[in-house]
Amino acid sequence: xxxxxxxxxxxxxxxxxxxxxxxxxxxxxxxxxxxxxxxxxxxxxxxxxxxxxxxxxxxxxxxxxxxxxxxxxxxxxxxxxxxxxxxxxxxxxxxxxxxx
Length: 100
Description:
The protein is mainly alpha-helical. The chain has helices spanning 4-24, 28-53, 57-87. The chain has a single domain (4-91), classed as Orthogonal Bundle (Helix Hairpins). The chain contains three helices and no strands. The radius of gyration is 17 Å and the shape is elongated.
């Protein structure tokens, strides 16, 4: 059986990759993918601790997180389409003229 520490190490690595993607990239699609990586890292933690404690509550939370991630992607794709229509690019630094 794989120890919980291995899952936590994997989760930390995936979360750091997602955080690096958010902090260094200007492309809105990369932002969305990086947020998905961070949410998947949280899901790995939920499932790992659920397995460790022997109950299903972590897996249920993981399913709810996946639903929230799907809604986030739907809204994010809509925002990206508006960015592309207005600026012909998905660079988030060009969208400063869309302020109120």
